[in-house]
Amino acid sequence: MTAWYEDWFGEDYLQLYPHRNEEDAARLISLLETRVEFHGKEVLDLACGPGRHAGQLIASKAKVTGIDLSAVLLESANQVDGLDVVRGDMRLLPFAPDSFDVVVNLFTSFGYFDDDDEHLGVLCEVRRILKTGGAFVIDFLNAAATVANLVPGETTAMGSETVDVSRRITDTGKFVEKEIKRHSDGEVFRERVRLFSPKELTNMVELAGMRVTSVAGDYSGNDLTDDSTRTILFAVKD
Q1: Domain locations in the chain as residue ranges
Q2: What is the pLDDT of residues 15-50, one digit of tens each?
Q3: What is the pTM for the complete model shown?
Q4: Nearest-CA neighbor of 192 among 202, 180, 200, 204?
Q5: Among candidate residues 168, 166, 175, 211, the one with its CA nearest the CA of residue 193
Q6: Which CATH architecture does the domain made up of 4-143+197-236 adopt?
Q7: Which carries the bigger pLDDT value, residue 214 or residue 184?
Q8: Tens digits of per-residue pLDDT, 152-192?
């Protein structure tokens, strides 16, 4: 049986989330530029998806490589001028040690696995491929706000299709799950993401051997609170 993230990130995913646009990506990269130097740097966009953030990083004069497991999303990313794309698994990155000045992992492209040792392994891989003094940025959901503001169900469009979307927090409280059911044929797609608190995420980044230098709670750079929309950690490999 394949994992949900192996099946989901394809054409249906792109049709369900058309609002994830260039303007949104530009806001995030503008924040990152206030705390990280990108100009002329070797940057890895880890789990790059269709490349919307990578395009903004290239506009900032970075030399960007994008890696993702989804062949469909990489087809879109390959259309971004100046972006080198690689297909691979974030748990075993196909790069030599000390390859990158910056690694970014954006828009909750983390927390997909059942075992937290695998999540830690991803962060250890990030540290391995970073140069000494290199920066790591992770843009993740804010667990407290996700739980407090959870919408249990809705009906929406997925391209030309109509789908029912249901959401739940697992009994352990560790995961948020989403189920997307297509009206036309009853096919069901699933998402499942680990609800790391900011403290848990910080501890994991530091356990992997990187030092968290600053934190933000949204794309405007405001302080992180329980009500914040995001958890954005900035770290460095000393």
Answers
A1: 4-143+197-236, 145-191
A2: 666 655 677 889 999 999 999 999 999 999 999 999
A3: 0.94
A4: 180
A5: 175
A6: 3-Layer(aba) Sandwich (3.40)
A7: 214
A8: 999 988 888 899 999 999 999 999 999 989 898 988 889 99
Q: Which two tokens stand for residue 38?
A: 């990108």
3-class SS string, the chain: CCCHHHHHCCHHHHHHCCCCCHHHHHHHHHHHHCCCCCCCCEEEEECCCCCHHHHHHHHCCCEEEEEECCHHHHHHHCCCCCCEEEECCCCCCCCCCCCEEEEEECCCCCCCCCCHHHHHHHHHHHHHHEEEEEEEEEEEECHHHHHHCCCCEEEEEECCEEEEEEEEECCCCCEEEEEEEECCCCCEEEEEEECCCHHHHHHHHHHCCCEEEEEECCCCCCCCCCCCCEEEEEEECC
Distances (CA, A) of 133 to 61, 62, 96, 205: 19, 17, 16, 15
Query: Tell me: the pLDDT tens digits for 106-154?
Result: 999 999 999 999 999 999 999 999 999 999 999 999 999 999 999 999 9
